[in-house]
Amino acid sequence: MPEPLRRVALYVAALMLATAVPASAQLDSILKELDTLTRSGAATPGDAKIGAALKQALQVGTESAVKLTGKTDGYFANQAIKILMPERLRTIERGLRAVGYGGEVDELVLSMNRAAEHAAPEAKKIFWDAIGKMTIDDAQRILNGTPTAATDYFKDKTAASLTLAFRPIVDRAMNEVGTTRQYNELLGRAQAIPFLKTESYDLDRYVVGKALDGLFHVVGEEERKIRTDPAARVTDLLKEVFAK
Questions:
Q1: In angstroms, rounded to a whole number, what is the distance separating the alpha carbons of residues 118 and 230?
Q2: What is the C-alpha separation between 145 and 31, in angstroms, rounded?
Q3: pTM for the whole structure
Q4: Among 225, 103, 113, which Cα is nearest to 234's?
Q5: CA atoms within 13 A on the CB side of 170
Q6: 21 by DSSP, 3-state: which?
Q7: 3-class DSSP state for residue 235?
Q8: Which range has highest mean pLDDT (50-64, 132-146, 150-164)?
Q9: d(CA 61, CA 64)
Q10: Closest Cα partner for 84 from 197, 180, 221, 211?
Q11: What distance lies between CA 135 and its chain's CA centroid?
Q12: Do the Cβ atoms of 17 and 238 come closer than 8 Å?
């Protein structure tokens, strides 16, 4: 296999392997297929089968990234992506806590995170759709790009679709876990406090935005880790790609 293509293939497979170590056997099989196809003359560097193998490697990794966020406490227990009260509602939050409604505020925060955790699995198909459109040139740009080039690629290709997909799921989840009811109750209590000024706020939109921010943060952190931290290169594959 030509060295530039091999490096791209190895990188794309290795990039997400930090979050998908149990799938290493599958990735090794993919890479062996690349070598076999090229040596036998059955494929050229531009062959669709090679592109498909690269995409399959990314599918393994993005599935793992989604699993990290799409589980109980995937958001709530991760301080880097935990969804807090909106900045515009912080004054109301302080007022409610001051008069004894701190527990109710905490329940609202928990339910917002639960809604995001419900929505995260929807990202898998959308990520995979973007991977299906990835070209060899895209992979080369990722290889030679910034510390979060792969993450930025996914953000550019999927943010709009994810926003549309997440909105109804978050809306449904917020109703199921009680977020909407809790928010409306707290807003009613805030309106009864003379010194607090309240306003309408699109909480669904806020949770959708924060859910996506958190998802891309997790992908980006894994990408940075594998690029910069030798301790994260837990397989021969990772060491080969990033030793230079």
A1: 34
A2: 22
A3: 0.72
A4: 225
A5: 22
A6: helix
A7: coil
A8: 150-164
A9: 5
A10: 211
A11: 21
A12: yes
